[in-house]
Amino acid sequence: MASLNVGNLGEYLREQRRNAQLSLRQLADAAGVSNPYLSQIERGLRKPSAEVLQQVAKALRISAETLYVRAGILDAERDRDEVETRAVILADPSLNERQKQVLLQIYESFRKENGFGVGEPVAGEEAGYPAQDTGVDSGAAGGHGADADPRRTAG
To answer: Is 5 left (phi over 0), alpha (psi -120 to 50) or beta?
Structure first.
């Protein structure tokens, strides 16, 4: 059986939890996971899912992508630039959460357009943000152009 390689993740989580001045129980409650399960993650005995890592990251107010790399979910070398870009966006205190998610969606669309990140979920989808809701309208939904209903006429 291959090593879980989650010791580094556990040590990092413990350090982040202590920096946030949270007890194990407080972080477990905030992340919506059990206290024993979080303890096992910190001790390197369990490899959490991406969903659990996202919940923990949100509770610690840190980048989920950083945890994904430490857990081996993302390839550190290949994805380092993308992770760092996302982390900078997520850490920007001048943006609200919705603005951060929209900016990440635009960033992902440009990466896909340029042939990177194809097939990967857009950041924020897991958190319940629709990937297409960037506030940009193609015009078709507004009843203009070729897709407009011909039965509707100005009257």
So the answer is: left
Work out whether the CA dihedral 97, 107, 51, 17 comes out positive or negative.
Answer: negative
pTM: 0.49
* pLDDT digit string, tens, across residues 12-35: 999 999 999 999 999 999 999 999
User: Which candidate, 31, 33, 24, 38, places its Cα nearest to that of 62?
Assistant: 31
Summarised one tens digit per residue, pLDDT across range 39-65 is 999 999 998 988 899 999 999 999 888
Q: Is the dihedral of CA 60, 65, 71, 73 positive or negative?
A: positive
Residue 83 half-sphere exposure, CB side, CA atoms within 13 Å? 17
Quick one: residue 122, left, alpha or beta (phi over 0 = left, psi -120 to 50 = alpha)? beta
